[in-house]
Write a structure and sequence with these properties.
With about 90 residues, this protein is an alpha+beta fold. It has one domain (about 5-70, about 75-90). It is about 40% helix and about 20% strand. It has helices spanning about 20-45, 80-90; strands spanning about 5-10, 45-50, 65-70, 75. The chain is globular and about 35 Å long. The structure holds FE2/S2 (inorganic) cluster.
């Protein structure tokens, strides 16, 4: 059985969050930053960044991201803040 990632970012690209393409841009930027800083962790399956159509936290076109396994939800988060969460997750 495959282990779940230590941390997973679920970026909403539903109709509200991706209004004007902001959810898709956030997913792309976060994926690139994670790959740049934590490429080995992504390849090992410890870190993941996926897209979802709606997280049921729609908020006026502001892209939402759910962090798993904590379940915390962030509105239009700062990329550096997300990278800090990865460092914390890897530190255990
Ligand atoms: S469309 Fe993103 S939370 Fe609903």
């Amino acid at each position: 059985m495959t282990e779940p990632p230590l941390i997973r970012f679920v970026v909403c690209v539903g109709d509200v969050c991706d209004r004007e393409g902001r959810g898709s841009v956030l997913h792309e930027r976060l994926s690139e930053a994670l790959d740049f800083d934590f490429g080995k962790g992504i390849a090992a399956g410890e870190i993941a960044c996926v897209r979802r159509s709606c997280l049921r936290h729609c908020s006026r076109g502001i892209p939402m991201v759910r962090i798993e396994p904590s379940g915390d939800v962030h509105a239009d988060p700062d990329i550096e803040q997300m990278l800090d969460l990865v460092v914390e997750a890897l530190a255990g």
